[in-house]
Write a structure and sequence with these properties.
Layout (H helix, E strand, L loop, with lengths): L2 H7 L1 E6 L7 E4 L11 E6 L2 E10 L10 E2 L2 E2 L7 H14 L3 H8 L11 E7 L10 H11 L1 H4 L3 E2 H8 L3 H9 L3 E7 L18 H13 L5 E7 L5 H14 L3 E5 L7 H11 L4 E3 L5 H12 L5 E4 L11 E7 L16 H12 L2 E6 L4 H6 L10 E5 L10 E6 L13 H13 L2 E5 L8 E4 L16 E3 L4 E3 L6 E2 L14 E4 L3 H11 L5 E4 L7 H12 L5 E4 L12 E6 L13 H13 L10 E6 L5 H8 L2 H15 L5 E10 L2 H13 L7 E14 L2 E11 L4 H9 L9 E6 L6
Parallel strand pairs: 2-5, 10-15, 10-16, 11-13, 11-14, 12-13, 14-15, 17-27, 18-25, 18-26, 24-25, 26-27
Antiparallel strand pairs: 1-2, 1-4, 3-4, 3-6, 7-8, 7-9, 19-23, 20-21, 21-22, 28-30, 28-31, 29-30
Helix pairs in contact: 2-3, 2-12, 4-6, 8-9
Bound molecules: adenosine-5'-diphosphate and zinc ion (2 copies).
The site of adenosine-5'-diphosphate has 14 residues, from helix 9.
């Protein structure tokens, strides 16, 4: 072998876990035997960082300049589809490779040996040892048949016998106990199959049979479209079971797993064990363990938020994306990606089935399922009926121009009457308003000055329960004051418009006797609190729930028969591409909270625009018609999913530098057929978290490689220091 091939062999291309591009070349050193997917630690800047070997380096850098891999990590390699996934996500989102690697190698603590724990077992009895009461307790416990062979960990012994750790230590010293060091990372019990479960109805059975048959049969996507309460979860559980039986791993994405206690309970009932969870509320120690179990192929089902997509699955066999239409699947920071879309990509690379489930499918999935008569890329399964014979709620409009509420109140007479009827019948009502706090705007009646955030172009929201004014964009807080800072008037500050707290005030005024409860992230801040809240509603301790979007999510409240949407027009304002779709989904979802069991439910939508097509389709109950109209409008405008869209956001604390960059962008606009560029222009929120912002939008026909255009254009732009540029492929936010 020549000198040069030898040296080429020993230089590796390594993607480093840091928000930088790459991969970078390193001398293999201890990673001599490494191949694509191997995990390493490398020196980077002044630190040592985790990295992934992407392959052999091209070898065009002088060896003398290269640094050497520090550690070859003693773990299985990342499987090939995962490494490919990292490259593809980076290429699609245009995020630096290292940023994507950082999401995958999120638990570098998992690289080391797991900590060890002592496992105690009975020793052959020594000739002489004093047996105290506590020692006898330990001996009795460890002598029980289920522990006689395997023994138990200190924690288990202490919990069962009540002795202290020091007793165990002394028993070990005098030879009463044998000790073995075991990994602290005990594998959680694996899901069981063949447990008893509900008998599926015919629609469910048909869908479940179809999904089960896809396991092990390569890549395909199924859209499972079923009205709320139609039993979708039970259906995809069948596929999950089939995949587990085949010895595969399963990933289930839920938009708000932390809040989904009911879902977890159902999983446990179905599979005999709780699922392995992955989201931001999971503690680091647990994450470290789970990450390793996933890589080693020992964890079988993971349920998680979007970040779970980047776990190092070694034998993934099925991906389920539940509530696939949820916008929570779009990550808006760092690597800006849509988890549902990336789940489909991951399925494709792993050659496995993907199930997308929803009661209100996204337009994208609807179109992909061939429902608009265009190319059918997904299979389509439908569950048209509710399981428990429950009717879908009837939906009515309350025209606020005809029957307005009194001045300074927000509930119109028909809604008040309906609540009253429910109270008399001992049934529950939900008042839905997607606005946290007391009032969205506070202004001075004397001079008209609005209270705004010093860091953002936004109003300060009154939070009376907390006694604070808060900016919902940056979190800035101030004390409420009755004096106007602009004109000095006293006692002229007025709260305008309602938030959920203000509705609570009205409910208390109208129905002094009722038990109401607020459900928003301010009042119910943790998963545990949410669980308690939901249980108290189920137990009938609440008559009226006043809630934000948190109340719209999949909760199942058997005695809730009325949903009042206080402001059905709220989501429709603004020119957002998906405003109509999002409003439709949100309103159907919140209406679906009503009448989930035997009693029929009713939803009432308060609006100033009863003619709005979104509301009209909701009332008619013709969801498909809505999707068709929406699809037609998007098609005509060449908008996603029929065209491509990307936005570029530039921001800087310095206005002049922002304008310089905007000028640079304007003067270098590329000119292509089938591509339109709008802007740059000052963003709708022109000042956010202390930074001035501008944005531009690129629309292109489906045939155009929009990433390619952006890369060549923006690659030439010289950004002044402290100007930041962010690319958002297929944006959901237009602020
Ligand atoms: P979806 O996800 O479509 O809203 P779920 O899967 O949550 O519906 O099911 C709604 C409720 O009906 C759940 O309590 C579930 O346990 C129950 N359920 C589902 N399928 C059946 C069935 N075939 N027989 C009895 N109960 C069922
Ligand atoms: Zn004033
Ligand atoms: Zn702010």
């Amino acid at each position: 072998m020549t000198e040069s091939t030898l040296s080429q062999k020993s230089v590796l291309a390594i993607a480093v876990s840091a928000p930088v591009g790459g991969p970078y070349d390193y001398l293999a050193g201890p990673a001599m035997g490494a191949t694509r997917g191997s995990l390493v630690m490398v020196p980077f800047g002044g630190r040592q960082l985790p990295g992934i070997v992407m392959g052999k380096a091209k070898g065009d850098l002088p060896m003398a300049k290269l640094r050497t891999v520090a550690v070859m990590v003693n773990l299985p390699r990342l499987p090939a589809p995962m490494v490919q996934f990292i490259e593809r996500v980076s290429a699609w989102t245009m995020a630096p490779l290292g940023s994507v690697v950082k999401m995958v190698l999120s638990q570098p603590a998992a690289f080391g040996c797991p900590p060890k724990l002592k496992r105690y077992r009975l020793a052959p009895p020594p000739d002489e040892a004093r047996l105290t009461v506590s020692r006898q307790l330990v001996l009795d416990y460890l002598g029980e048949p289920e522990r006689r062979d395997g023994g138990d960990l200190a924690a288990g012994i202490i919990a069962a016998s009540g002795v202290s750790q020091s007793v165990l230590g002394r028993m070990e010293a005098v030879g009463l106990l044998q000790v073995e060091l075991v990994s602290a990372d005990l594998l959680p019990p694996l899901p069981k199959h063949n447990l008893a479960h509900v008998v599926l109805n015919d629609d469910q059975q048909h869908a479940a049979d179809h999904l089960r048959a896809t396991i092990g049969q390569g890549f395909r996507v199924n859209l499972l479209d079923g009205v709320t309460g139609s039993g979708k979860t039970e259906v995809y559980f069948e596929a999950v079971e089939a995949s587990i039986k085949a010895g595969q791993q399963v990933l289930i994405l839920l938009p708000e797993i932390a809040l989904s206690a009911a879902w977890r309970a159902r999983f446990s009932a179905r599979f005999g064990v709780p699922p392995l969870e992955w989201h931001s509320d999971i503690l680091p120690g647990q994450k470290r363990k789970s990450w390793r179990f996933v890589l080693e192929g020992r964890a079988s089902v993971v349920v998680g938020a979007r970040s779970a997509l980047f776990l190092p699955f070694s034998k993934l066999g099925l991906i389920v994306v539940d509530e696939e239409h949820e916008h929570a699947f779009k990550q808006e920071e760092q690597v800006i990606y849509q988890a549902r879309d990336m789940a489909v990509l991951l399925g494709q690379l792993n050659k496995i089935p993907v199930v997308l489930a929803s009661a209100t499918p996204s337009l994208e999935s609807w179109v992909n399922a061939g429902k608009t008569g265009m190319l059918q890329r997904y299979e389509y399964l439908s569950l048209p009926k509710r399981v428990h014979d429950a009717e879908l709620p009837s939906i009515q409009i309350i025209n606020l121009r005809e029957t307005p509420p009194e001045r300074g109140r927000w509930l119109a007479p028909p809604l008040v009457n309906a609540i009253d009827l429910r109270l008399k019948a001992g049934e529950q009502s939900l008042l839905y308003l997607n606005r946290r706090g007391y009032a969205p705007l506070t202004l001075c009646a004397a001079c008209g000055t609005k209270l705004t955030c010093p860091n953002c172009d936004s109003w300060m929201v009154a939070h009376r329960l907390a006694g604070r004014m808060r900016c919902h964009h940056c979190g800035h807080e101030s004390r409420p004051s009755n004096n106007c800072k602009a004109c000095g008037s006293k006692d002229q500050m007025q709260a305008c418009g309602p938030g959920v707290e203000r509705l609570a005030e009205e409910v208390l005024w109208r129905f002094p006797e009722v038990r109401f409860a607020l459900l928003s992230s301010d009042t119910v801040g943790t998963p545990k609190a949410a669980e308690t809240f939901i249980q108290s509603v189920i137990d009938g301790e609440v008559d009226i729930i006043i809630g934000t979007q948190m109340a719209a999510k999949g909760h199942h409240f058997p005695n809730l028969t009325l949903v009042g949407v206080v402001d059905a027009d709220l989501g429709l304002a603004g020119g957002d591409l998906r405003a109509a779709e999002r409003t439709f989904q949100m309103l159907s979802q919140v209406a679906g909270r009503a009448g989930r069991e035997s009693r029929p439910g009713e939803a009432m939508l308060q609006t100033l625009e009863p003619q709005n097509p979104v509301l009209a389709s909701l009332i008619s109950g013709d969801r498909d018609l809505f999707l068709e109209q929406e699809a037609a409008a998007r098609l005509a405008a060449g908008m996603p999913p029929f065209g491509r869209l990307a936005s570029v956001i530039i921001s800087s604390p310095y206005e002049d530098r922002l304008h310089d960059t905007m000028r640079q962008l304007s003067s270098t606009h590329p000119n292509f057929d089938l591509v339109q560029i709008l802007g740059p222009a000052i963003a709708p929120i022109g000042f956010l978290r202390g930074k001035h912002r501008a944005r531009l939008l690129i629309r292109a026909d489906k045939s155009v490689n929009i990433q390619y255009i952006l890369e060549h254009w923006l690659g030439e732009i010289k950004l002044p220091s402290s100007v930041r540029m962010q690319i958002d492929i297929d944006p959901y936010s237009f602020l």
